[in-house]
Amino acid sequence: MKNISIAAVVAAAIAVPAFAEDRAGWPESFTVGTASQGGTYFAYGSGWANLVADELGITGGGEVTGGPMQNMALVHTGDAQFGMTTMGPAAESLNGTNPIAPGLQMTNACAMFPMYQTPFAITTLKSSGIASIADIPAGAKIGFGPAGSTSDTYFPRMIETLGIEFERRNGGWNDLGTQLQDGLLDVIAFAAGVPTPAVSQLEVQTEVNFITFSEEEQAKILESFPVAPFTIPADTYETMTEDAQSVSMWNFAIANCDLPTSFVEAVVDVVMSDNERMKGIHKAARSTLPENWDKNNVLMWHPGAAKWFTENAGADIPADKIFSN
């Protein structure tokens, strides 16, 4: 037994990256700000939080929040060590236009690693007869997710740009899915990584329509908002029969800028060093790849994250883009 124990200790020591051996200043526990249950943020964020906790031997987990805007605020203040955000809400938070704390420039939230693109997608019940954006009737009740989320921040403006009149509704994705089934909503406008758990649950329980953007609608949105073209593949959902054209924003994990360099570097290493393991947490992680470091053009980099991407992904991150006290 003694020999086995010694071997295990030696093996563990070899497996721990050199930068993780220095744990000076590391927190005893950590929290990852995610979003509402039923959305991709919650599933993805809780997954990598648990993975990091297991690999580094530290207590940590995901926390339900209002999404990217609130996560920027929580990480900036240090109430959460980590969080997740899309680039649009990140830019607004840096500029002091985050509705949670108007006027506060949230500059103490740093980029940590690329996650995935968030497509903007519309789902209705097949029984509604709504098969396109143009079919959405004036005054339709549309659920946009939690107040302050990426979806709630941008999708109403997009729908208005396309000339649709609607009544705005907010709530967690699971709750909105139930309201759609109960006839309390006409449409749900999702901004979440795909497959979105709430949509996967909906298609098991009832027949749904996956609404695609027409070329003209997509072009109008691309002209007006900080988004990129995106195609939701037909195999994303069990009952989806063809690709859906959409638009998307990139998501990044964020860290409080004051966290120790070695701690953040170790966290990034756990997440970025094994993509197959991340895809096991959520399919959206197929884009959680080192080469996507360059999709951050908004946030300052945490020094620990910048060090990992520079040494392991050949990233060329300018010194003036790395946070420094």
Automatic annotation (TrEMBL):
**Keywords attached to this entry:** Signal
List the Gene3D superfamilies hit by this protein, alphabetically.
Periplasmic binding protein-like II
Q: Name one Pfam family in it.
A: NMT1_3
Q: Does the keyword Membrane apply?
A: no
Leader sequence range is: 1-20
Judging by the UniProt lineage, the source's domain of life is: Bacteria
Instruction: State the protein's name.
Output: C4-dicarboxylate ABC transporter substrate-binding protein
Protein species of origin: Actibacterium lipolyticum
